[in-house]
Amino acid sequence: MAVQAETRTLGVPEGVTLAPDEHVVATGSFVFSNLLFFLHWKMAVTTKRLVGQTPNTILGIIPLGSTQVSYPLANIAGVTTRTAYSFLWLLIGVVLLLAGIAQPNVILLIIGVLALLAAFSAEISVTNSGGGRIGHRVAIFNRTKATAFVQQVNAAIAAHAHQTVVVTAATTTVTSVPTTSDALGELGRLRDAGHLSSEEYEAKRREIIGRL
Questions:
Q1: Which candidate, 8, 4, 6, 12, places its Cα nearest to that of 28?
Q2: CB contact set of 207 (below 8 Å; sequence gap of 6+)
Q3: Splitting the chain (212 residues) into consecutive groups of 10 residues, what average pLDDT does each group show?
Q4: Farthest-apart Cα atoms in the chain, separation
Q5: pTM of the prediction?
Q6: What are the DSSP calls for 26-61, one per residue?
Q7: Helices 87-102 and 106-119, interaxial angle, to 10°?
Q8: For the residues of 146-168, what is the DSSP string, one character each?
Q9: d(CA 94, CA 53)
Q10: What's the rounded Cα separation, in Å, for the pair 196 and 192?
């Protein structure tokens, strides 16, 4: 049982507790940014939700703890990856590079390059059923890995939606099948309303009972 439980929760972000009937479908570990290459974060998609432990930062360069996120699969419209950039860091990088070249100044050149690296990133973007979007930053060189994980997430979302439709359809079918007592009651109502003669009522009643 211990081995089974360990396998079921393998790769789940720290602090995330799974329900007894919840299993991990796929996991991903990502570098947060081009500069903070030492800062990794995790996401996992289960049979019920998309969970993760994402870093918090100041201006995208100073680590400041982490946040747990959880998105029920039923509430996710889709997940994508995209390239993102910060206009502020891009502007700072260009200005510093130009200043470093003009002087010349090695320190300004280095800081300019670092600012440009901070300007570009990839993003795992989660869109909910209401159209709202939440982005989770990934280093630009991790985009291929993020894209592969996103494909697995979308497959899990589709499988969950299909399973929900099947269960709903099965429930509807079961509840829509009339019982023998319902059929006999309807038959009696038609007779009392004058829509069936006594002979027709008796013939239909025997037919329904004969199906049992």
A1: 12
A2: none
A3: 45 78 90 87 91 83 83 92 89 93 92 90 91 91 93 91 66 55 72 71 74 64
A4: 110
A5: 0.68
A6: EEEEEE--SS-TT-EEEEEEESSEEEEEEEEEETTT
A7: 160
A8: HHHHHHHHHHHHHHHHHHHHHHH
A9: 33
A10: 8
CA dihedral 180, 183, 185, 189 (to 10 degrees): -170
Residue type, 164: T
DSSP 123: E
Cα–Cα distance for residue pair 184/190, rounded to 1 Å: 10
User: Residues for the chain: how many in total?
Assistant: 212
Q: Helix, strand, coil: what percent of the chain each, to 5?
A: 50, 30, 25
The C-alpha atoms of residue 59 and residue 193 are separated, in whole angstroms, by 78
**Residue of 146, 159, 25 whose CA lies nearest to 79:** 146
d(CA 6, CA 1): 9
Beta-carbon count within 10 A of 169 CB: 10
Beta strand spans in 73-160 (E)? 76-85, 120-128, 133-138
Query: Is there a contact between 83 and 143 (Cβ–Cβ < 8 Å)?
Result: yes
Q: How many CA atoms lie within 13 A of 206 on its CB side?
A: 5
> For residue 159, how many other CB atoms are within 10 A of its CB?
13
Q: Are strands 40-46 and 24-31 parallel, antiparallel or unpaired?
A: antiparallel
